[in-house]
TrEMBL record:
Biological-process GO terms, alphabetical: ribosome biogenesis
List of residues binding GTP 2: 182-189, 229-233, 294-297
GO molecular function annotations of the record: GTP binding; ribosome binding
Protein name: GTPase Der
Species of the source: Halioxenophilus aromaticivorans
A Pfam family this chain is assigned to: KH_dom-like
């Protein structure tokens, strides 16, 4: 399970600047998708080889009405879901009463907290930081988020203090982990029941906290699966704590932990930004992706072709993912999801040889040469695999830094087609070897 770090603090102290500093260092798996807006508040980060989720709680406005109203349920939920809190304060402004109220809440929450004394640039460190020691809440780290100063030192300590990540060490198993994700009300619970209900399902109970999704182990056609149920359908009744049914953090963790993500959307509402955000997260996480447009039963037939066209237009950036038009309610087409899920998993795990990849590269280059750069042609010489799950193809040549995006896409499409890869991101990297 990816650890969750929440950024908390008054407005304008530098939370989103810090957020950008922290998430920038991740390996963005696919950075060049046009038309994809990303959720500002949740990001997956990778620092010092450690993956985690960062949440910028943003909303602690802390105006005169006091912290309780200011700390909207969103922010409180984010703190509850976090493993660790970075409490960001403004060293120049000094300790304010809102800071003290936030600190009070954090103390009550019992969350491990680091105080980040931001905007330390141009002020005397010792003098500026002194008042924050009073909070007696946790270690204090000076930063200048705008320049990234102090961020590495801070994050080294932060990541060191988190428990070891077991999922990284987990060896590969044959058990295919499927996460069903989507906005509230798109039909996740209904689909989870469908996916399980058709078969004799052997469900094992995994202990989990209310923050976690439910992991359901089962077999289908004698193949082992785990369904990661973010909707909490199968949550045991005796869990009395009220949890919000939809949680972005839960969704992100499920995505990170899955092999293949079934992203469910609502045909009667069309594709909305939140659907695209979720898609972006699945792509960034490098997971297999299957798209399902639910409630297809609720559409008039002329509306159906309109929706299909619209999807084709807007979802070009994920054209490698299968799209299914389903009715979870009636079970229509639900069985076909498994075909795509298994294919995405096979594609993600595929092992490719240098010979095979180099041959495909040579063919692609002979059909369509890379462009000239300053009168000199880019040469692409050979390709080998840089990893799988998701597959990475490393291409060696000269002037590779000048390979244009459209040519990279052409190569990606060619590799996909020839290797018959479906439903998995494919990452292409270039190395210049003159
Ligand atoms: P948020 O509201 O807490 O998310 O704060 P922002 O990240 O939006 O930052 C608010 C303002 O403070 C912006 O103008 C930032 O450029 C500025 N800022 C952020 N970090 C620093 C810093 O370390 N030093 C200085 N001088 N300005 C900063
Ligand atoms: P969740 O919040 O994503 O778990 O969504 P639910 O599974 O609770 O479904 C939300 C609502 O949509 C419920 O009223 C379901 O009965 C309804 N629903 C789910 N799937 C379908 C479907 O395929 N067709 C129609 N017409 N309604 C559906």
């Amino acid at each position: 399970m990816l650890p969750v770090i929440a950024l908390v603090g008054r407005p304008n102290v530098g939370k989103s600047t810090l957020f950008n500093q922290i998430t920038r260092s991740r390996d963005a798996l696919v950075a060049d998708f046009p038309g994809l807006t990303r959720d500002r508040k949740y990001g997956e980060a990778n620092m010092f080889g450690r993956r985690f989720i960062v949440v910028d709680t943003g909303g602690l406005s802390g105006d005169e009405r006091g912290i309780d109203t200011a700390m909207a349920s969103q922010s409180i939920a984010a703190i509850d879901e976090a493993d660790l809190v970075l409490f960001v304060v403004d060293s120049r402004a000094g300790l304010t009463s809102v800071d003290q109220q936030i600190a009070e809440h954090l103390r009550k929450s019992g969350k491990k907290t680091f105080i980040v004394a931001n905007k330390i640039d141009g002020v005397n460190h010792d003098v500026a930081m002194a008042p924050f020691y009073e909070l007696a809440l946790g270690d204090l780290y000076p930063t200048t988020a705008t320049h990234g100063r102090g961020v590495k030192t801070l994050m080294t300590e932060v990541l060191d203090s988190l428990p070891e990540d077991e999922s990284e060490q987990e060896e590969e198993s044959d058990r295919l982990k499927i996460a069903v994700v989507g906005r509230p009300n798109v039909g996740k619970s209904t689909l989870v029941n469908r996916l399980l209900g058709e078969d004799r399902v052997v469900v094992y109970d995994h202990p989990g906290t209310t923050r976690d999704s439910i992991y359901i182990d089962y077999e289908r056609d004698e193949k082992p699966f785990t369904l990661i149920d973010t909707a909490g359908v199968r949550r045991r009744k005796n869990v009395s704590l009220v949890v919000e049914k939809f949680s972005i953090v839960k969704t992100l963790q499920a995505i990170a932990d899955a092999n293949v993500v079934v992203l469910l959307m609502d045909a009667t509402e069309g594709i909305v930004d939140q659907d695209l955000h979720l898609m972006g997260q699945v792509i960034d996480a490098g997971r297999g992706l299957v798209l399902a447009l639910n409630k297809w039963d609720g559409l008039e037939s002329e509306h159906k072709s309109y929706v299909k066209n619209e999807l084709e237009r807007r979802l070009q950036f994920v054209d490698y993912a299968d799209m299914h038009f389903i009715s979870a309610l009636h079970g229509t087409n639900v069985g076909h999801l498994y075909e795509s899920i298994e294919q995405a998993y096979e594609s993600a795990k595929v092992k490719l040889s240098t010979n095979q990849l180099t041959r495909i590269l040579e063919d692609a280059v002979s059909v369509h040469q890379p462009p000239l750069i300053n009168g000199r042609r880019i040469k692409l010489r050979y390709a080998h695999t840089g990893g799988h799950n998701p597959p990475i193809i490393v291409i060696h040549g000269n002037q590779t830094e000048a390979v244009p995006a459209h040519y990279k896409r052409y190569l990606e499409k060619t590799f996909r087609r020839v290797l018959d890869l479906h439903g998995t991101p494919l990452r292409i990297e270039f190395k210049t070897t003159e």
